[in-house]
Design goal:
The complex is a heterodimer of chains A (497) and B (448).
Chain A: H1 56-67, H2 90-96, H3 99-102, H4 114-131, E1 135-137, H5 143-161, E2 168-172, H6 178-185, E3 189-193, H7 203-209, E4 214-220, H8 232-241, E5 245-249, E6 269-271, E7 292-294, E8 303-304, E9 306-310, E10 313-317, E11 330-332, H9 340-376, E12 392-394, H10 406-415, E13 422-423, E14 433-435, H11 443-461, H12 465-469, H13 482-487
Parallel strand pairs in A: 2-3, 2-4, 4-5, 5-6, 8-11
Antiparallel strand pairs in A: 1-7, 6-7, 9-10, 12-14, 13-14
Helix pairs in contact in A: 2-9, 4-9, 5-6, 9-11
Chain B: H1 8-18, H2 49-61, H3 84-90, H4 93-96, H5 108-125, E1 129-130, H6 137-152, E2 156-159, H7 165-178, E3 181-184, E4 203-209, H8 221-230, E5 233-238, E6 257-261, E7 277-281, E8 294-298, E9 304-308, H9 315-318, H10 331-368, E10 374-375, E11 383-387, H11 392-401, E12 408-409, H12 410-413, E13 423-427, H13 434-447
Parallel strand pairs in B: 2-3, 2-4, 4-5, 5-6
Antiparallel strand pairs in B: 1-7, 6-7, 8-9, 10-11, 11-13, 12-13
Helix pairs in contact in B: 3-10, 5-10, 6-7, 10-13
The chains are: A alpha/beta (497), B alpha/beta (448).
């Protein structure tokens, strides 16, 4: 249905902010500068920027309308595999905004920020206890940044040991793209370990590839097929016997948090996505936070700064010091001391759950995923047998011959009011659909999703490919032309463009 | 437990459907020895919202918020006034609780706001294109150097001595582990460092901060010309983005890449993070850029819309051949930046920049009149360096006891450098009042 205004009920067409320009208007009233005297040296003040002028009500309406074009975990089921879209607590938002956290400058005198250092230290304590690991680096800003931190520690440890250079890193083919990207960025040669027919690391191939020039295996456990690497102890032993380290991608920690400690599996380093497992909001793509836990062997090789306890309280170690045991630490991962605003939210979540709640939460996440697996595997092909962890993987075999693709299923789900699962990842199965329900959903929501998926499977088998291909139809925009966007990139607004 | 909606009856029914007796049976692939029989021992159990709020509020109460008294701290993080509207809008659940916009049909809100953000960053920096954000200014700086290395196929970066030391260190960390060379100048509190002699045919880029870490404002045109002459790129770091409401933009002075920190717009100090990395460059280097990009396109009905684009540069497609390993960025901080800048608009942003500068000019006048205090800068935006007759760090601790956050001792930034212990970095923003300035000057007069 078309309307005169272009709006459709609650869903408003909204131009770019630049197209709403009322020149000279502003949404902020400022006192005029008391002086025009400038001390800008030889630099000439600029006379214009090209920004639009709007008043506060215009800006509020613009961004409110934009927000209404987004799907969110607040609004509905968001089973995006490997992303752990669980409920985001508002308690965390409230506490992160306390002036005692939000209004702290990172370079205030240490005596004035003892509570902030205690907060970081408390969260660090929880992360070490939940993983059984010896040390934790709190500064990495996201998962991929944590990978970088962990792999730098591994490089530093090998350098410290001496011996021939270890330039190879082994990465299972099911790994997230960040793993090979991280290893390659650090100058390692990346070698892929194939998956077995059971969706796990091929231990025989791994053993054959291990050698005195291998620095590390980067393993995701539970892996991206949603499976626990059942040979993990054999794997870690083989890696260690070869003199290499075991890096674990902790993106899937939500399946095991409080139930299995990575230290007990032989892990040497693992990043933890606070914005996944510990419920801090994704914010449309960040900010994240990716603390890295380390085994005893890697504990000295951590980035600065570190928090130290001394007689006067807590302190920030910002330089290497023999006496403080930080002689082998390496430099900064970023400016200042980490994603402290994210830490507040993560600690609030952790204290809310406690040890018993976290145990229940990971169990519920795994239970919900297995429930989906059990109910859907008759209609969609589950490529691997046995229970899954916190996410259920299907491939597109059951869609064969229907003309309906994994992407079509995803787009049809959008019209049904669900966020699609992760599609076409992992790469080890054809047309992957990776469904991660998390522990935050009611059984009624899971049942509604299951009923929808089963109906979509029936519709696909009934030969209604055209219907799928035209989905979604009920969204602010229908399928967007990504090829055109990449062929002639338009990455900014320009006047009269 | 208030965050876990499954009931015991639900759990029993779901286990029955799966065909196992207990949740533990689902962990059959985990080594038995590693499977805990119950919650991790020696940790507290769940607590109500009230108890958690008490526990964290008690930690917050042990800190002295910057806004409790006069605050003159800067050095890469600035205390600006953020309009209430910004925080309200970014807490809308549709923005706050959505993931990376991989499904564009139901993510147009995030995508359009990021497209606006990219445009704003390009306008501020005077460059052609900007990405959808990096973690922070320091990581943006390190990524800029990696990008310059790729473009020039050279492996030697020159970092100004007056580049923020955390940015130097973040870049040097990456250099150590990825195997490129960094040459770092010595800090020069007078701002007279010239980098012209350190550029040669092997230099991939020169990284210079403007205003520099001591507050000096530079005309970068000669440096840009020197870089061009040697085939090196000029990377300009801006740690106080507010300055671009007043200063000639780096793009107009010949910068090839701008790596900036955007916290000043829309984002709280938060003890140093999360902040917002800004990244802009020239169109011709677009495909070597790290990070996510939002592009304009049309949908199946021909209507304008937005998608993530040029992802063939990115790790999830290119894996080990990606331009960067970055995935998650600072989406919500970018949204706060965009909303704050939209509220300010052309006149507001330029007026605010002038106001910041005017405050600093006023403070420099007042501080210069205090016995024993000498302002080192001839030029500055909203931050400058003063020389004191005694150690700055001790003085700052004494000021803190009087409720004044008097500035950043330069030794806090450069702990390993000699001869800087009597220097103090002092910043003003629109939040600084004349009473604040007078309180600082009075306290200094008494303590010196």
């Amino acid at each position: 249905m078309t309307t005169t205004s272009g709006h459709r009920g609650l869903e408003m067409e909204e131009p770019l902010i630049f197209e709403l320009d009322s020149p000279g208007q502003s949404g902020v009233d400022l006192p005029l500068p008391p002086t025009t005297y400038t001390r800008l040296g030889r630099v000439v003040p600029r006379d214009s920027l090209g920004l639009p002028g709007l008043t506060e009500p215009q800006v509020v309406r613009h961004y409110t309308r934009l927000s209404q074009k987004n799907y969110s975990i607040d609004a509905g089921f968001y089973p995006l595999g490997s992303c752990t879209m669980k409920h985001n607590t508002r308690l965390g938002e409230k506490l992160a905004r306390l002036p005692g956290f939000a209004d702290l400058h990172p370079l205030q005198p240490i005596s004035t920020v003892q509570g902030a250092l205690a907060l970081i230290d408390a969260l660090a304590g929880w992360l070490k206890a939940l993983t059984g690991m010896a040390a934790v680096a709190m500064t990495p800003a996201a998962g991929a940044h944590g990978e970088m931190c962990g792999m730098m520690a591994i490089r530093a440890a090998h350098d410290h040991r001496g011996g021939p250079p270890r330039l190879r890193v082994l990465v299972p083919e099911s790994a997230h793209g960040t793993n090979p990207a991280t290893a390659a960025a650090l100058g390692f040669t990346v070698e892929t370990i194939p998956a077995t027919a059971e969706g796990r690391v091929d231990v025989a191939v791994l053993k054959a590839k291990l050698g005195p020039d291998v620095a590390a295996l980067m393993l995701t456990n539970p892996n991206t097929c949603g499976l626990f690497e059942r040979d993990i102890l054999t794997i870690s032993q083989a890696v260690h016997e070869a003199g290499a380290f075991l890096y674990c991608d902790g993106a899937n920690f939500n399946a095991i948090v409080g139930r299995v400690r990575p230290a007990d599996l032989g892990v040497d380093a693992m990043h933890i996505n606070l914005h996944k497992t510990f419920s801090t909001p994704h914010g449309g793509g960040g900010p994240g936070s990716g603390p890295v836990v380390f085994s005893q062997a890697l504990a000295p090789f951590v980035p600065l700064p570190l928090i130290l306890h001394d007689d006067d309280g807590l302190r920030l170690a910002e330089t290497r010091d023999e006496d403080e045991g930080t002689a082998l630490a390496y430099g900064r991962m970023k400016a200042f001391h980490g994603q402290v605003g994210v830490f507040v939210r993560a600690l609030a979540y952790t204290l809310s759950h406690g040890a018993d709640g976290l145990y229940q939460a990971s169990g519920d996440a795994v239970l919900s995923a297995n429930y989906l697996l059990a109910r859907l595997k008759g209609a969609f092909n589950a490529p691997f047998t046995g229970p899954c962890m916190h996410e259920a993987l299907f491939d597109d075999r059951s869609l064969k011959g229907t003309g309906v693709t994994t992407l079509d299923i995803a787009k049809a789900l959008i019209d049904e009011g669900f966020h699609p699962m992760t599609v076409y990842f992992p790469l080890v199965v054809h047309g992957a659909m990776l469904i991660e329900p998390t522990e935050s959903e009611t059984k009624a929501t899971l049942d509604q999703f299951i009923a929808t998926m089963l109906a979509l499977a029936d519709r696909a088998k009934a030969g209604d490919a055209a219907w799928f291909q035209s989905a979604p139809r009920l969204t602010p925009r229908r399928r967007l032309d990504e090829t055109a966007a990449a062929r002639k990139p338009i990455l900014r607004w320009k006047p009269n463009a | 437990m208030r965050y876990l909606p499954l009931t015991e009856a639900d759990r029993r029914a779901m286990l029955a459907e799966i065909g196992v007796a207990s949740v533990t049976d689902l962990y059959v692939d985990a080594p038995a020895a590693a499977l805990l029989p119950g919650p991790v021992p020696n940790l507290p159990n769940h607590q109500g919202e009230l108890e958690v709020e008490r526990a964290l509020a008690a930690l917050a109460a042990k800190n002295m918020p910057a806004g409790y008294g006069p605050c003159f701290l800067g050095a890469g993080a600035y205390r600006h006034h953020v309009p209430a509207t910004v925080d309200h809008l970014i807490q809308r659940g549709e923005f706050l609780t959505s993931y990376t916009p991989y499904q564009p049909e139901i993510s147009q809100g995030t995508l359009q706001s990021l497209f606006e953000f990219q445009t704003q960053v390009a306008l501020l920096t005077g460059l052609d294109v900007a990405n959808a954000s990096m973690y922070d200014g320091a990581t943006a700086c390190a990524e800029a150097v990696m990008m310059a290395n790729r473009i020039t196929r050279r492996q030697r970066a020159v970092l100004a001595g007056n580049l923020h030391p955390h940015y130097q260190d973040t870049t040097a960390t990456l250099a150590r582990f990825t195997g490129f060379e960094v040459v770092i100048g010595a800090p020069d509190p007078r701002g007279r460092e010239t980098l012209l002699d350190s550029i040669d045919d092997s230099t991939s880029c020169v990284v210079v901060q403007n205003p520099d870490v001591f507050g000096h404002v530079h005309d970068l045109t000669p440096l840009a010309a020197a870089c061009r002459a040697k085939g090196a790129l000029l990377v300009v770091v801006v740690t106080e983005i507010m300055s671009l409401g007043l200063l000639t933009p780096p793009g107009a002075m010949g910068a090839d890449i701008v790596a900036g920190e955007g916290q000043s717009l829309g984002n709280p100090l938060s003890f140093g993070g999360p902040h917002l990395g800004l990244f802009a460059t020239r169109e011709k280097y677009l495909r070597q850029m790290p990070g996510r990009l939002v592009g304009q396109t049309v949908d199946a009905d021909g209507r304008r819309g937005w998608v993530l684009t040029l992802s063939t540069r990115e790790q999830h497609i290119r894996r080990e051949k990606a331009t960067s390993n970055i995935c998650t960025n600072s989406g919500l901080c970018a949204l706060a930046f965009t909303i704050h800048l939209s509220l300010l608009g052309e006149t507001g942003f330029m007026g605010l920049a002038r106001l910041n500068h005017a405050k600093a000019v006023q403070l420099a006048g007042k501080l210069g009149a205090v016995d024993g205090v000498r302002v080192l800068n001839d030029s500055f935006f909203n931050e400058f360096t003063v020389r004191l007759p005694r150690r700055a760090s001790k003085l700052v601790n004494k000021l803190a006891k009087r409720g004044i956050l008097g500035g950043v001792p330069v030794v806090r930034l450069f702990p390993d450098a000699d001869g800087l212990s009597d220097l103090l970095l002092v910043a003003c923003t629109e939040c600084t009042t004349e009473a604040d300035m007078d309180a600082l000057c009075r306290a200094l007069a008494e303590l010196l």
